[in-house]
Amino acid sequence: MSREADLELMHEYVQDPGLRRHMLAVEAVMRAYAEKLDEDVETWGTVGLLHDFDYERWPNPPDHPLKGAEILRERGYSDSVIYAILSHADYLQDLYPRRSLLDKTLYACDELCGFIIACALVRPTRLDGLKTKSVKKKMKQASFAAAVPREDLYRGAEELDVDFDEHSQFCIDALNHAADQLGLTQ
Asked: For residue 128, which of 25, 117, 142, 181 sits 20 to 30 Å off, Cα-Cα?
């Protein structure tokens, strides 16, 4: 599939600008990791972009991401793309455990990207100058982005076998490269 087809699918199913921004953010970080790890950038980008495309219509587990997986199968997406998307849901771990580097990277980036964006949105300079130290400080505030389980942020880095601080800064840097597209510039 092409990125244009991925974007069409996203626009067909997702109207909320915040969810679209999140999906584009995860795509940007997944592409950056694919480049770093010498993996298929297009496949990893697809996984990042489409991992939540069904969430707006079917937000309740296990419909999300099971309903999306059905749609992706019908449209001819690869088994590895579909599996990675299914494996990012903790409540499906018995059926779809994270096995591959792709699966683990999506999980490690998903919630962290959302948290980093939340951090950026409360800063006058947005992503510009944001550092892991600031992200970790916000993680200590239980009321800030309260829906994001902090243990998931750490678990993602652990499963990916990377230092949390390095992983966080890598994600921040990747998002900085996409800041214009994400509407996160000063």
From this structure: 142
Q: Domains in the chain, please, with CATH?
A: 3-182 (1.10.3210)
Determine contact, residues 23/50, Cβ cutoff 8 Å: yes
Cβ neighbours of residue 71 closer than 8 Å, sequence gap 6 or more: 9, 54
* Residue 29 CA: distances (Å) to CA of 23, 41, 119: 10, 10, 16
DSSP state of 162: -
Q: List Cα–Cα distances, 57 to 13, 14, 92, in angstroms.
A: 7, 8, 19
56, 47 Cβ separation under 8 angstroms = no
Q: Is the dihedral of CA 83, 89, 90, 95 positive or negative?
A: negative
Whose tokens are 């750490």? That residue is 154
How many Cα atoms within 13 Å fall on the side-chain side of residue 64?
A: 13
Mean of all residue pLDDT scores within the chain = 97
Express each pLDDT in 6-33 by its tens digit.
Answer: 999 999 999 999 999 999 999 999 999 9
**66-111: per-residue pLDDT in tens?**
999 999 999 999 999 999 999 999 999 999 999 999 999 999 999 9
